[in-house]
Amino acid sequence: MERKLFQLGDVVQMKKAHPCGTNAWKVIRMGMDIRIKCTGCDHSVMIPRLEFERKMKKVLQSTEPKEE
């Protein structure tokens, strides 16, 4: 399986929506565990990296500008 690329400060889309109605999360801590914060209600969750990579769909907003 290919590793998904994300970095600190990225806004990512998860497979399941949060109960507040949004499924966009901001990555606020990285390591063996990833801490993400809901962009809708500011609730934060810490989950293991492998579980996060399985549940993440795509990066919605990257902190690094793309080169053209």
UniProtKB/TrEMBL annotation:
Entry-linked InterPro entries: DUF951
Domain of life: Bacteria
Protein name: DUF951 domain-containing protein
Organism: Brevibacillus fluminis
